[in-house]
């Protein structure tokens, strides 16, 4: 087990790596830095608490890590990028599709008024609920379901975060956005295979 003050230093190093990657990718993403509030939250949230114990020594590497069930905790740069793209304002109601271990969820909960999060894998959802409840998070509601359909009972949302890549943007999610709402979704572009 690594001492908590060491984790603080590791988080700061991770944030520096994210900032360096933003500079490196600035022409691709159209900006040279992420919102200061997003970066402050990235520096605050203890990522090591969201990975299996055998992965703790690697928690602050700027890369995805296996969390079981064939899933990963996203690369910190991607978490910061997608959060930044949502441009959360503190009073936003957010839908997250793909709770996973809850790391992205807690990042969103720091920047939004309310987060509704949907996860298709029951064990992951329950683990995230227990973890975030133990952390005292009260502005998050969990649901076990296929996130493709969103969570219409709480719509419309100011912002929607989809944590897994998709080939299309589901109409059901677009329909659950408020006018002027934002959606961040990794989009897989398929190129035709030639015979």
Structural write-up:
- The structure is a single chain.
- The protein has seven helices and seven strands.
- The protein has one domain: Rossmann fold (3-Layer(aba) Sandwich).
- The chain has a five-stranded parallel beta sheet with strand order 5-4-3-6-7. Strands 1-2 form a two-stranded antiparallel sheet.
- It is globular and about 45 Å long.
- It has 195 residues and is α/β, with parallel strands linked by helices.
Question: Could you write a compact summary of the structure shown?
Answer:
The protein is an alpha/beta fold. The protein has helices spanning 4-24, 26-29, 36-44, 76-86, 103-111, 122-134, 171-175; strands spanning 65-68, 71-73, 93-97, 114-119, 140-144, 157-162, 177-184.
Mean pLDDT: 93
**Whole-number count of domains:** 1
What is the second-level CATH architecture? 3-Layer(aba) Sandwich
Count of discrete alpha- or pi-helical segments spanning 4 or more residues: 7
Strand order of the largest sheet: 5-4-3-6-7
Strand content: 15-25%
> Which blocks of ≥5 consecutive residues have pLDDT under 50?
none
**CATH fold type:** Rossmann fold
The sequence of SSEs as H and E is: HHHEEHEHEHEEHE
Name the CATH superfamily assignment. Answer: Vaccinia Virus protein VP39
- Using only CA atoms, what is the Rg? 16 Å
**What is the CATH top level name?**
Alpha Beta
- The gross shape turns out to be globular
Distance between the termini: 53 Å
Helical content class: 25-40%
Task: Provide the structure class.
Answer: alpha/beta
Strand tally: 7
Main sheet: strands, sense, barrel: 5 strands, parallel
């Amino acid at each position: 087990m690594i001492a908590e003050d060491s984790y603080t230093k590791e988080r700061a190093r991770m944030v520096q790596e994210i900032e360096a990657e933003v500079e490196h990718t600035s022409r691709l993403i159209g900006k040279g830095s992420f919102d200061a509030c997003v970066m402050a939250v990235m520096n605050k949230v203890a990522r090591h608490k969201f990975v299996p114990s055998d992965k703790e020594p690697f928690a602050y590497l700027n890369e995805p890590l296996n969390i079981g069930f064939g899933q990963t905790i996203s690369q910190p740069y991607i978490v910061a990028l997608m959060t930044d793209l949502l441009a959360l304002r503190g009073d936003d109601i957010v839908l997250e599709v793909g709770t996973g271990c809850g790391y992205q969820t807690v990042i969103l909960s720091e920047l939004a008024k309310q987060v509704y999060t949907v996860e298709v894998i029951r064990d992951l959802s329950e683990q995230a609920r227990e973890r975030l409840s133990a952390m005292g998070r009260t502005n998050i509601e969990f649901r076990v379901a296929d996130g493709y359909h969103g969570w219409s009972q709480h719509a419309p949302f100011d912002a929607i975060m989809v944590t897994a890549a998709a080939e299309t943007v589901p109409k059901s999610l677009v329909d659950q956005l408020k006018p002027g709402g934002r959606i961040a979704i990794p989009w897989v572009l398929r190129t035709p295979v030639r015979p």
